[in-house]
């Protein structure tokens, strides 16, 4: 998976959509046109009445010129209403989120003057037309692939069904909330993949909520977001596994305490593909049974193998697993004999698959072959400065969950 050409800098947006306000009308120095165009109208509305080609990310603002606003509704037909917030003093209402493209919206505002008289004002505007829509194709973690309780290294990974050109608009509408706030940032791997990770591992036993408020958000020329998506998940206990290809032992620590030491045998080397990669791997899947075949070697060729392996934990996309290897028990703890996987005993493998969460860090050191950031979930292979290089809006704290 290659990086796109849009790796620019900015801030991590974890707040609501910033509005683009219309320019002030000549008769209205505040920039809010009167509903119906009359200066004596009790409320002002932006966009102005009968405005056309209104950007979907422009906020709807309703202001009371006298008295207070009692209620405001912005209805978009089948697209439904726009949500909004009324100021504490009742003087102004502002929409939240984006509107739908190609939609006629009706703004109905009820204001109350000092004498208690209610007046209803109505205006309409039409948003810019959209030729096509884009959507979130996959979001990880998820219930089916990873479960909703994951390890402290778990990134949030979003794949879009169409290439995104306006990365600023999209990233601005992606937010992360957590019960224990952390510093984090989004990172574009290419035009269809954007991922989030904290600067340091997630705090153990915390809750995380992902909000992608993309409905009506511009993703490129004539292309707008189809819907909003929300995902809630939990971070489990902190479990980090470390092993050196030179020391031949995997050490498992849970919440800072060593709970298991497992003799291991790593890649034998000789050929580059037979080295186990060094770096911060993440547990990507837990597979009771995996059929492994020799990389780049077909049936009938020297070195070909096809082997059924049990209790495997995937740690990269280049075929690396931590798995049961009864055939190499004699080498585990003293030498490297595998084709790149991390071999452990059947008993240890049964324990490891049972006690591993998807997203648990598995750190291997000592090999000359380094894990690439795009090889599986090698997100932690980039330092924070490198990670931010591919973020449009840079870093910021996650929003505190209530």
Could you explain how this protein is built, in words?
- The chain is mainly beta and 402 residues long.
- The protein is built from three helices and 31 strands.
- It has a five-stranded antiparallel β-sheet, with no helix packed on it. A five-stranded antiparallel β-sheet has the order 11-13-16-15-30. The protein has a five-stranded mixed β-sheet with strand order 12-20-17-14-31.
- A hairpin with a 2-residue loop joins β22 and β23.
- The longest helix has 10 residues.
- The protein is elongated and about 90 Å long.
- About 8% of the residues have low confidence.
Summarize this, please?
The chain is mainly β.
Number of strands: 31
Distance between the termini: 37 Å
Give the helix/strand class: mainly beta
Instruction: Specify the biggest β-sheet.
Output: 5 strands, antiparallel
| Overall pLDDT score | 90
C-alpha geometry:
elongated
- Helix percent reads under 10%
Q: Low-confidence segments, ≥5 residues, pLDDT <50?
A: 4-34
Give me the side-by-side strand order of the main sheet: 1-2-4-7-6
- What percentage of the residues does DSSP assign to strands (E)? 35-45%
Give me the Rg, rounded. 27 Å
> What is the helix tally?
3
Features:
31 strands, 3 helices, single chain, 402 residues, five-stranded antiparallel sheet, mainly beta, 40% strand
Secondary structure layout plus pairing:
Layout: E1 33-34, E2 43-46, E3 51-54, E4 61-64, E5 68-75, E6 84-86, E7 92-95, E8 104-112, E9 118-127, E10 132-134, E11 136-140, E12 149-150, E13 156-160, H1 167-172, E14 174-178, E15 183-190, E16 193-198, E17 207-213, E18 218-220, E19 223-225, E20 228-235, E21 239-244, E22 249-254, E23 257-263, E24 279-282, E25 285-293, E26 306-314, E27 321-324, E28 342-344, H2 346-355, E29 361-365, H3 384-389, E30 396-397, E31 399-400
Parallel strand pairs: 3-9, 10-19, 12-20, 14-31, 21-29, 27-28
Antiparallel strand pairs: 1-2, 2-4, 4-7, 5-8, 6-7, 8-9, 11-13, 13-16, 14-17, 15-16, 15-30, 17-20, 18-19, 21-22, 22-23, 24-29, 25-26, 26-27
């Amino acid at each position: 998976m290659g990086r796109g050409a849009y790796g620019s800098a900015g801030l991590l947006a974890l707040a609501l959509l910033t509005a683009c306000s219309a320019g002030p009308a000549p008769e209205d120095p505040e920039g809010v046109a009167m509903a119906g165009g009359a200066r004596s109208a009790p409320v002002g509305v932006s966009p102005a009445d009968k405005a056309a080609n209104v950007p979907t990310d422009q906020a709807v603002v309703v202001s009371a010129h006298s008295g207070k606003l009692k209620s405001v509704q912005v209805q978009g037909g089948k697209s439904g209403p726009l949500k909004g917030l009324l100021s504490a003093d009742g003087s102004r209402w502002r929409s939240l989120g984006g509107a739908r493209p190609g939609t006629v919206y009706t703004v109905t505002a009820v204001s109350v003057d000092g004498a208690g008289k209610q007046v209803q004002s109505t205006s309409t505007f039409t948003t810019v037309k959209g030729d096509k829509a884009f959507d979130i194709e996959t979001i990880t973690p998820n219930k089916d692939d990873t479960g909703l309780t994951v390890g402290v290294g778990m990134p949030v990974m979003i794949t879009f069904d169409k290439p995104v050109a306006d990365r600023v608009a999209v990233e601005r509408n992606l937010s992360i909330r957590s019960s224990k706030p952390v510093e984090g940032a989004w990172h574009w791997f290419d035009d269809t993949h954007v991922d989030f990770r904290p600067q340091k591992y997630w705090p153990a036993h915390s809750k995380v909520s992902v909000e992608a408020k993309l409905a009506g958000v511009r993703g490129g020329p004539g292309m707008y977001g189809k819907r909003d998506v929300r995902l809630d998940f939990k971070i489990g206990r902190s479990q980090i596994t470390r092993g050196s290809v030179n020391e031949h032992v995997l050490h498992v620590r849970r919440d800072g305490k060593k709970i298991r030491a497992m003799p291991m045998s790593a890649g034998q080397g000789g050929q580059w593909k037979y080295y186990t990669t060094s770096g911060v791997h993440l547990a990507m899947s837990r597979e009771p049974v995996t059929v492994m075949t020799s990389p780049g070697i077909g049936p009938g060729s020297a070195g070909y193998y096809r082997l059924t392996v049990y209790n495997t934990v995937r740690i990269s996309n280049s075929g690396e697993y931590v798995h049961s290897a009864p055939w190499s028990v004699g080498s585990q703890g003293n030498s490297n004999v595998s084709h790149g996987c991390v071999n452990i005993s059947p008993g240890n493998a049964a324990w490891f698959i049972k006690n591993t969460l998807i997203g648990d860090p598995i750190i291997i050191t000592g090999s000359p072959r380094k894990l690439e950031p795009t090889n599986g979930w090698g997100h932690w292979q980039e330092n924070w400065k490198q990670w931010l290089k591919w973020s449009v809006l840079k870093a910021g704290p996650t929003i505190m969950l209530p």
